Amino acid sequence: MTVFETAEAVRSGRLSALQVARAALDRVEQRNGAVNAVTRILRDRALARAEAVDISLSRGIDPGPLAGVPFAVKDLFDVEGLPTTAGAGRLRQAAPATDDAAAIRRLSDAGAVLVGTLNMDEFAYGFVTDNAQWGVTRNPHDLARFAGGSSGGSAAAVAAGMVPFSLGSDTNGSIRIPASLCGIYGTKPTHASLPMKGVYPFVHTLDDIGIFTRSAHDLAIVDSVLRADAGDETCRALQRPALLSGWFGANLSPCMSRALARLSSQLGGLPLVDLPNVARARSAAFLITAFEGGRQHRDALVADALSYDPATRDRLLAGAAVPDHVYAAALAYRDVFAAAVDAALAQYEVLIAPATFGPAPFIDDPFIPIDGSMQPARANLGLYTQPISFLGVPVIAAPLPVNGLPMGVQLIAAKGRDGDLIAFAQSLEAQGLIQGRCAWQEKSDDNQ
């Protein structure tokens, strides 16, 4: 069931929160072995929280808009009583968190039930969720393929139908890429607009938490809970969409090119926008990431570099060597590129771009084609997300209704227009132009 359907069933008494929690925990037990999305199952906590929701309802107290809805979080959110590993083996024995992350508290206060923590690339530095300690998270639609990263566990858990929604984090595409490859929705909000307290940091200039769901309606519900202090706002679906071209039209798989052309046609023929110097913007995002990530870990690397995954360690060491003036130049170019994007968003309220080059690459062949040569997927799946990442604008990864393997687009709006952008996604969903998918439901249907 969706977030909305689950909460309605619990509130109406058709299902108890305990029934819903047990069913979710059972699905995790049954499906996680194949997908490897969940790192820790929080059975006792989930059942206790679900029982509390049922007690509230028995006393006539509304537990909130997420009554009894199971969810899980990327393993860089603080969970009281557990070490926050950020996907790193070196932190498995860290001191346990003394409180839940602010986002978890808001969701729990609204009646949601936390059932587990989710796999990720170590310290969120990667696009495939290939973890040296917890293994590879596999795409529920094809277990031979990546789920994307670094929030791959969060995407796979939702796409596999384990939970109706999950939380992840997005620095350079870590929500948008796995959402696209797994056929679900994912958000990178206006920078710093959702609560970051209790989230393990990577790149403070770019880090944001976000949501994975199977419907745009569910996005709206969970987003409104996370914005608990924002007050009631009337959202207006944005108008005047345009399609990003140039950089965003190059290196696409034929199936992605066809899907974008079909979407454009269905929307009446989208005007094309060619942003200037996108390659330079991507390079600037790379440098900001390397510099801030390297500085974040510099002392730990000096003390015990060998405790890091080598693939992560080498990139962090390189970032720690980036000079201050290079970082300053990257920040300065962000203002230049942001002005070009702001101008485009003044003319067109939504910019649409591919989230990835096409469907998920194979785990045993982890490369993607860029400019005529095969490049490592772990570092390059962010080809279309990274140039947008450092602008601080809200982006929704929206799943295209394609046959075969999932693919998605980015819906991009001006800062602060998060609610309006979600409303735009809802309007596209109502027209059947975007649509989330559950891999296990597809498999069940195929067998009937």
TrEMBL record:
Source taxon at top rank: Bacteria
Pfam families named among the record's database cross-references: Amidase (PF01425)
Stretches assigned to the Amidase domain: 20-235, 314-421
Gene3D superfamilies assigned: Amidase signature (AS) domain
Stored SUPFAM superfamilies: Amidase signature (AS) enzymes (SSF75304)
Protein name (record): AtzE family amidohydrolase
Source species of the chain: Sphingobium rhizovicinum
